[in-house]
Records
---
Amino acid sequence: MSQSILLSFQANISVHQDLEASFILHSSNLKLDLSHLSAGLKKAIATLQGEGATDEELANLVTQIDGSPNLPQLYYYLQQFIRYGLICHTIRVDRESLATLVPITTSSPWEWAEIEPDKKYKLSRFAYCHREGRQMIWESPLSQMIVSLKDWRCTAIMHQLVQAKTCNALTKIPNVSKQIAQAFLSLLKTAQLLEEIDNNSAESETDTLAQWEFHDLLFHSRSRSGRHSHTVGKSYRFLGKIKPLPAIKPQVSSNVISLYKPDLEKLKQEDLPFTLILESRKSLRVHGDRPISQREVGEFLYRVARLRKVFFRPYMECSTRPYPSGGASYELELYLAINICKGIFPGIYHYCPQNHLLEQISPQNDYLKALLINAQKNNGEDCLPQVLIIITARFARVSWAYESIAYSLILKHVGVLYQTMYLVATAMNLAPCALGTGNPNLFATATGIDYYAESSVGEFILGKQ
Ligand SMILES: Cc1cc2nc3c(=O)[nH]c(=O)nc-3n(C[C@H](O)[C@H](O)[C@H](O)COP(=O)(O)O)c2cc1C
């Protein structure tokens, strides 16, 4: 049985050459002019496109065309390409490709991991598999490489690796030789998709890693730069394909309640000093017998979340409001689940920040009760909140413009809005408390709003002490 490793360029890299002897490597963020290289080196480098070749095959090409003095240059260029994450490695046994290791960063130097025949290995709990285009990809937030499977035997091995196995144990799979198992495990270990079982210790993870949940680490690594090759930030990838959402959500109901508008000039003169508000702010979870009033709800919403003005930035409509928002996206909407409020009937309402009014979505019903009970459970107190403010996000306001970071940006906006709510409530002598969990599924059922278009991403309770 013969085993080899094919080197090939990443799919996004192409070689442009013409009769003038110009020879340029291209990708979306790379342009490398290698026109000065010898004919043998150019031939070897051009061979890295498509299927690729082993380093022995590449060396033969250079020797045949240029002679052996150019071999050190070949190895130098291969090393540099690998170092800058341009090269994929495909393991091949008996001329059959099993799997390809694809770097996703211009990362630190790496080496093939050794597999010990008597050691047991199992799949890392951070490893996951998904379809990307026409490929089945395995990746992990621990890794700076992804693995693309080419052969069904690799899928069978992955399946077996949910339990710790030695290489020998994997040869029970039909047509899997020890050599195949060893080569594939080495690739998986290099990509940090494998855990090595230490017979002397029950724990294979450090305490630090043990405290990361799979979804948290994946979200962290994918929504920040450094551990993936996706675009990060404003890319407007849907420009010309999908219309951006308007800055203001269209009115949801004609059954509306106009709200009180406070005199901001007067407040600027008479409000409590900023430091007093900041220092006396605290979470107050228990609401007393006196209900919050329509006037207070109006003042609170006006000071926290009203729309100041709409303006146009290239490609999309934006707005300004009292709290900050990345890209002036203002994707967050406020819904009030009113249990008790002087002047407003219990029910579920949407706050219209443009006209400063409440639009009724539903009167008192079992869904309202379920939302309030859910909030009560989360604040650990014995009484239902007077008002539960449910914050939703019209996701596409952010994901239309931003790539990789859309959801994390939305959660940052929720934090910013929470603090604005806390400070305004404190200034108004109201009882505020943010909540850490909520149920977007229940909210979707209660309001009939499409979960994928606009879901709840935060909750806040408000009332009078
Ligand atoms: C994002 C966030 C989520 C929170 N979630 C809850 C919650 O679910 N239940 C609760 O009773 N308090 C919750 N709180 C309030 C915190 O418990 C509170 O801010 C913290 O104990 C500090 O107390 P202080 O706000 O009175 O200074 C949350 C606060 C924030 C900022």
---
Amino acid sequence: MENQSSQYLTRGKDYELKEQLFTLPGKYYTSEDIYKEELDKIFYKRWILVGREEQIPHAGDYFLYNIENESLIVTRDAGNKVNAHFNVCRHRGTRMCTESKGHFAGKSIQCPYHAWTYNLKGELAGAPLMNELKQFDKKNYSLHSAKVQTWEGFIFINMDENPTPFEKEFAPLIGKWTDRKFPELRIAHTIEYNLKCNWKLILQNYQECYHCPGVHPLLAELTPFRGASHDCMHGGILGGFMNITKEGGSMTMNGEAAGPALPGVAGNEKQRIYYYSIYPNMLLTPHPDFVLYHVITPKGPHNVQLMCNWLFRPEVINDPNYKESIDSAIKFWDLTNQQDWQVCEQMQLGVGSKKFGTGHYSGMEDVLSEIDKETLRSLGHSI
Ligand code: FES
Ligand SMILES: [Fe+2]
């Protein structure tokens, strides 16, 4: 599908904003009430990234995705379909699974309390002695489920009863990187970061390189910070690319590629690194030779968990010759992540001050105002 970007911005020293753009007021990063509203109107309503299909390759495999009061059992059924069931027994509400991942050996999910048992589709298959009650009909006691959509090997869920169709929300991305065969990629490494900052600061930090020269000297050397172009602004999907200086290079400690280019990467694409934020909880960074992605999970207004993952071709992961270069890609992004996290945490401290009103965005940060608008639109707020 053609990219439905509404604007194409190329920044340079002559770039001028048509209007003055200001940040959200501090309370959007600190208020418990606004945070609760964000959970209801954003995280429990939108498509959110929970993981990769490769994490549950076989029927009965599962992992949990936990966000505040909700716990979802993401599992694959015998028909190869991925389901996401609320981890809430329909008998008296017990949370059934506690291990973060595993395999349902009997192809069923059993509550440890009174042994109600559900199949992988979430249907109640057995409930001891309940057949003695004439009125009880098992059909009415399936697990509650979230909607599930897979895209390029990623698993998204939506907890709303009537969500916006995935195809509509993700229109600019559908087909965009299909030739790179993302579903075939495998997770080479994962790092979990737990930060003391609001989840929105992570999205904002990711979508601007105004901070790059000071915060990321190495990154700025590999990809000149003024060379950032946005090619997509579509609702909550924002993104663009930066040019890699070194021919055939990538984002590693020495700027060399970490592996061969992914299928379908040719011409200019060999020199581009894409930075896409998919509101509200995914950062997707396709490199010519690998893919980095982050899963953002809020943990209150002041805290966030980030799962950062490096995806490579399986044959590259399995080839010892690439071990060093994969490690270099991991080291580069871990370093860059930590540089970002430090300023995000410092910003969280500052925006909590009674003296912080709003900030004034620079000409390299107009996209951040789009992220803010998406939040305000979702909450039904105007400021
Ligand atoms: S609460 Fe689950 S079987 Fe009783
Ligand atoms: Fe950064």
